[in-house]
Amino acid sequence: MLRSTTLQRLRPAVFRVQRWNSTTTSAPKPSTTHSDIVVVGGGPAGLTIAAALKHYPETVNKSVTLVEFGSLDNLKTWGPDMERFENRVSSLTPSSVEYLTKIGVWEHVNRDRVQAYRHMTAWDGVSGSKVQFNTTQLMGEGRDIAYMTENFNLQNGLLKQLANKPNLTILDKTKVEGVERTPESHNKPLVKLSNGSTISTDLLIGADGANSPVRTFSGIEARGWDYNTHGLVATVRLANEQQSAWQRFLPTGPIALLPLPNRFGSLVWSTTPKMAAQLKQLTPEQFVMMVNCAFNLEPTDIEYLVEHPDEIMTDAPYRLSQRSSNPDVPCPIVAVQDKSRASFPLKMKHADTYIAENVALVGDAAHTTHPLAGQGLNMGQGDAQSLAIAIRNAAGRGADIGSTLTLEPYWADQYFKNHKLLGVVDKLHKLYSTRNPLVVGLRSLGLDAVNSVKPVKDFLMSQAS
Amino acid sequence: MFRTVPKTTLLAPIQRRTLLNGNYPKAYPEHVPLTCLGRAVLAVGSGFGTFFDSRRGDLVATLGEATAQPYFIYKLREQMLKDPTGRRLLREQPRMTSKSLDLDKLRNMKVGSIGRTYVEWLDKEGVSPDTRAQVRYIDDPECAYVMQRYRESHDFYHALTGLPIIMEGELALKAFEWANTGLPMSGLGMVLTPLKFKPKQRKRYFDVYLPWALYNGFRSKPVINVYWEEVLEKDAEELRRDLGIEQPPDLRQMKKDMAKKK
Predict the structure, then answer these.
(1) N or C: which end of chain A has fewer CB within 10 A?
(2) FAD-binding domain: from which residue to which, for each copy (chain A) (predicted)?
């Protein structure tokens, strides 16, 4: 979903750039090579665009260099047993999977570790009104709502697909230290790397996360706000096999439980930074109890118990026993995987534009969103697909792949689509973070209406996938 | 032919399910499941009854239950859930009766203690903890307990504040309760009943008791969270201080003083 490494990755990069810019004007030029396309970032979006470019006959001969700050060694050899699941998991929509299949990536993804789901329940933690989605009713038999996939599994599949591709260089453990344009380079980007080399390129693609150095170098502003909320993720063990996704909207933020194979579940609990810190400090037993409380008890109850961890094991079982078995609530959680609890701040951010002359931004570099709709990674996949097609079309015509004219269709395709989604998610977050009884009443009425009017539900489902 | 039809068969369908009687299962033995309309009719009926005869404790209790749901009783339970003692009360669900409280033991407690003040107040007013009605119309069993606890604690509020059960005292306490618990019945009583007051009563109420009640009700900690059974030995003045309540002027004394002035 989000990559926490981007934050630490960033600041030194920006700092060094300025130093480099000021010292190199008089220094002799370092060794410069050319690569038609440079992709910065080895996350799902960056790897997908590389895989897509290597898939199309029009672009397969373009030289591509992928630069990643971290090490990809662990990702290449990744393959844990079925008793461990990663805590960074994304819900891939059918259209994301369709494209990954088309470019030959999906067959390299370990399908035993992917969990499809066909039911989804979301409900209001204050009023209890709910909406249920069920693909077998809505979109015909055989359709899934989405596929729960570990981000590592997807990246591992992408790297397998990219192995031994011609004209592709993957430089990991390498930092982008600066981007410069000079008259000698015909104003095309010169990417200065931490290994001392410089690459000139026709198209620089920034897939380098929420604090994208490429975006900063390109002078593209990204606007938005901090939700003052942290997303706590964890891998949990469920009492029995599940094929449903669950999300409960609490005033502090939504808590979602998504199914993984082998009775595992992926938990995303958005809450106040303070509460997230407290939840991470609980013992595994307390944490498991707390998660079960979060799906069953009143918001006040949950907040009290988090504040009084000593009472969790004594008071919470009684509180839970007072709730008669509610079919809308997921099955109990029985354990939390060791060291799987992590949290990160949630932000809404959208770049002013995705393209500039010889530059394109994709994925988190272009937009970040609240995880409540599970769309962050899918938006990046959509970007990669759209940008790859734009480049393919230009390459097929023999046009300049870096010109804004080439990149314009990508921007036109994705910008407003993403903007709409960011807006909807942002409003949903705000709508559900209040306890004002009038707002709660109205939103519950609205949710009940959505739940009972089939065409509205159909429309929402088609929008989500 | 008419004679052969037993009365019960004519009444039976009404008992099973009507516009007013909900057909959902009972959540606790004394529960009377109502529809929304049923609750509204009950509220209006008991409201009128209470307005014209405020001595009808049963009607006051019914009005309280009919107007507390939805929302208000849940808010009150939330106040209990926020407090360790309130949570313990919800878990243990103690009931107050003349037996569980052992009134004779309370009579022997030291002067000024909560228990002694409470029993003196009971004796002075000639009431008993057993005169409190059973909650029937609240749907959630836990909320029903909250209502029951509120009702049973009511006499302790009298003891805590020293307000008598004449109309003005009762009303001042209602206002205090409204500010403190948010239950609408208390608010209705506070606003509507003064319409029946004589001018002198009204002046006393608006000048002294209502401001006292609202100020202290809003300011003090939620009194629903007091575990009365455990603070019986405690000094009333000390408990008032803990909760942040000032004692109001003695209403009966004030009445006498005003009568003398004339």
Answers:
(1) C
(2) 36-391
